[in-house]
User: What shape does this take?
Amino acid sequence: MYGRRWVKKVVTQQVGQANVNGSKLRAFRFPLAPWAEQQRIVDEVEKQFTRLDAAVAGLQRVKANLKRYRASVLKAACEGRLVPTEAELARREGRSFESGEELLKRILKERRARWEAELLAKMTAARKVPSTDRWKTGYRDPVQPEDEGEAVPGGWALSTVATVGEVLLGRQRAPQYQTGRWTRPYLRVANVKDDRLSLGDVETMDFDPVHFEKYRLIPGDILVSEGQSPERVGESAVYRGGIDGLCFQKTLHRFRPVPGGPSSGFAQIVFRTHVKTGVFMRLASITTNIAHLTLEKFEAAPFPLPPLAEQHRIVAEVERRLSVVDELEATVEKNLARCARLRQSILKMAFEGRLVPQDPNDEPASVLLERIRAGRETAVPDGGPSRRRAATQASRLRRRAR
Assistant: This one.
């Protein structure tokens, strides 16, 4: 037995590190082929590895191209270049349509109506029913884009994240919430990947009924990372259900679209595009290689708003194209793993004498081994007479130099 199996058998673990001492290493069984066959094996291994290296390099290029294509699809979707715009279709078909500007006005009207209804309900519950409408002047419109002159496709509107949805930062994790009467599962930034939620490692924290109502997740909510590495800050995923009573931590923002506003699918495309194009990274505050996308910066992030019918077409086309990319990426990963296995199998065949044909005219390995033994016997061992004699002569020369 030799190779990896031998190492696993004799290795010792010390503080998480594997160790093989010299005595065990000297006992390693070394397969010895005839000298000429060794040369043929080395040549064949190098030839096969060169081919594998070229294949791996090609697969890595395909992988990088797929990554760039994924980003270009998302970018084109948010620039109105992926599907025909609703304005183009309406003009071609001679019909009217609700533009992005009209949709934005309806969203703003809906936001104000909800704010008034919620505030009036609170005042009524407190028995402070107003006699006039002056209380309505306390309403503040959401923050508008910093660059309102930014170009958007015909029939679209440029808005902000805070205008088209409700944004909430999660609950801070604290020792007093680790146990309690209302322990519930919650998500943290480690659970949010690019367009995917990892629900296999979900922790729990105490959320009383009031805080549970505030921080609970419903299908369609989007979770956006608040703190991440600069190139990944703002990564997001749509919560589609799966765990009852699920909440979220302060390392995440929850985006909930305004009813009648953008679809969760289109909002997720916008957020992913902001990650790929560096919008979130430019908005974030970066300290010690960690970027923080604050609530204020996230709310002020630009949000292109197409008509609803166009949003649905964009989401369908993005899903269609990226599903093809997902399949191709899975194929690339399988082939990369296959290349790694082939590399191991080549080495295994080499040491089992199955990689190159044997030549009966080769000098037997037993003769080579005897020659090696004879050479070791005639060689001067460490600390032998010649070594001691050389050390004595060097000492004499140093004394004469003084």
User: Anything to note?
Assistant: The chain has a mean pLDDT of 88.
